[in-house]
Amino acid sequence: MTKGIVIAADAARGVFAIETGEGQCAVFCQYAGPPVQAGDILEGAVISRGTRVLMHMDGLCAAVGDSGPVTREEALARVRGQRNPA
Questions:
Q1: Phi and psi of 61, rounded to 5°?
Q2: Closest CA relative to residue 8, chosen from 38, 28, 41
Q3: Does 83 have pLDDT greater than 80?
Q4: What is the pTM of this model?
Q5: CA angle, corner 35, sides to 48 and 9, nearest 5?
Q6: Cα separation, 60 vs 77, whole angstroms
Q7: Do the domain assignments include residue 85?
Q8: pLDDT per residue as tens digits for the range 33-44
Q9: Total structural domains in the chain?
Q10: Nearest Cα to Cα of residue 36 among 67, 73, 4, 78
Q11: Residue span of the structural domain in which 45 resides
């Protein structure tokens, strides 16, 4: 299992971006589980597309991998709702 840190989150849209220790990033759309916030550590298939269950310190987080791996800039732009990074 891979660990990653949440680098950005938009709770209203249920979207968050995660970065691994190797610098790979991905964006997920959360549909169940504890609220994910920037700074949280998640464990599991954090650089994958499709439905995933990730381990969060407060329980299991169910999310769909929207994109990955992508650059940090691309991941942050997607969480902000931008199509292309600025």
A1: -110, 120
A2: 38
A3: no
A4: 0.90
A5: 60
A6: 26
A7: no
A8: 999 999 999 999
A9: 1
A10: 4
A11: 2-80
Give a yes or no: residue 65 inside a domain. yes
Residue 60 token pair? 């299991």
pLDDT score recorded for residue 67 = 79
Q: What is the mean pLDDT of the chain?
A: 91
Confidence of residue 66 (pLDDT cuts 50, 70, 90): confident
Say if 86 falls within a structural domain: no
Q: Positive or negative CA dihedral for 56, 4, 41, 63?
A: negative
CA distances from 47 to 12, 55, 62, 85, 86 (A): 23, 14, 14, 19, 23
For residue 52, the domain's CATH number is 2.40.50
For every residue of the chain, DSSP letters joined together read -EEEEEEEEETTTTEEEEEETTS-EEEEEEEESSPP-TT-EEEES-S--EEEEEEETTEEEEEEEEEEEE-HHHHHHHHTT-SS--
